[in-house]
Amino acid sequence: MITKRIIPCLDVRNGRVVKGVNFEGLNDVNSPVELADYYSRCGADELVFYDITASSDGRKLFTDILCETAKKVFIPLTVGGGINTTEDFDRVLKCGADKVSVNSGAIRNPSLINEAAKLYGDQCVVISADVKRVDGVFRVFAKGGRENTGMEAIEWIKRCVGNGAGEVVLNSIDTDGVKKGFDLEMLDAVCNAVSVPVIASGGAGCIEDFITLFKTLPKVDAGLAASIFHFGEVSIKDLKQSLANENINVRIQR
């Protein structure tokens, strides 16, 4: 049985971790370096680091903070934000990232995924899709959820996986920060469309939401969350123990 992963997410703006609701109203949380160290010690399976305004600001990802963060992390680290070229992949990998997440850069240049997969391997390339319902259709958004691309999300994700993306992070803008549960409908559609690991992001509010996620959609490989971990509402240790009690396979830190 495949072990389900629990992944805290660090949304970083101006060198600080922030969190909002539906990708808006961002509030300061903490230092990414301190949080990364904390999660690495608390039993997180992986960590995601997003420089959330790099694409919308038209700049490259902040590598100084990333380097500091990577030094504190002894679990796989996925990094995204302002990834537009294979040179950007190379730069963040050299800073300590294990995987590179691409969103707006792939929308602008779909061949980027294929080029990066050939250079670094499928396992290194993560497609991060920010998706929102528009008139009942799943649409892909770019630039940190600010820009509707008009593209239908499921076909876009299938295309990215076909080009070499080895993992999908599905960010539901509709449920982001709302804390009423993961977007099961959207996740089910993606899981049925691709054969690579799918990470659920957006909507976790309590331990029960993770239990519901993995029991309802056993194809989902991981649950990603931010605020419930950042603000101490749910501890990773308690979450994993609760999942194990429900016969959901997780890595328990000894």
Tell me the overall shape: globular
Q: Note the beta-strand portion.
A: 25-35%
Question: What is the CATH homology-level superfamily?
Answer: Aldolase class I
The CATH topology annotation reads as: TIM Barrel
SSE pattern: EEEHEHHEHEHHEEEHEHEHEHH
Assembly type:
single chain
Helicity, as a percent range: 25-40%
What is the number of domains? Answer: 1
Please give the radius of gyration in angstroms: 16 Å
User: What is the tally of helical segments?
Assistant: 11
| Biggest sheet: strand arrangement | 1-4-5-6-7-10-11-12
Which regions have little confidence, pLDDT < 50, spanning 5+ residues? Answer: none
CATH architecture: Alpha-Beta Barrel
Nearest-integer average pLDDT: 89
Distance between the termini: 20 Å
The assigned structural class equals alpha/beta
How many strand segments? 12
Describe the biggest sheet?
A: 8 strands, parallel, barrel
CATH class: Alpha Beta
Walk me through what this model shows.
The protein has 254 residues and is an alpha/beta fold. The chain has a single domain, classed as TIM Barrel (Alpha-Beta Barrel). 35% of the residues lie in helices and 28% in strands. It is built from eleven helices and twelve strands. The chain has an eight-stranded parallel β-barrel with strand order 1-4-5-6-7-10-11-12, surrounded by six helices. β10, α8 and β11 form a beta-alpha-beta unit. α1 packs parallel to α3. It starts with a strand and ends in a 9-residue tail after the last helix. The model has no long low-confidence stretch (mean pLDDT 89).
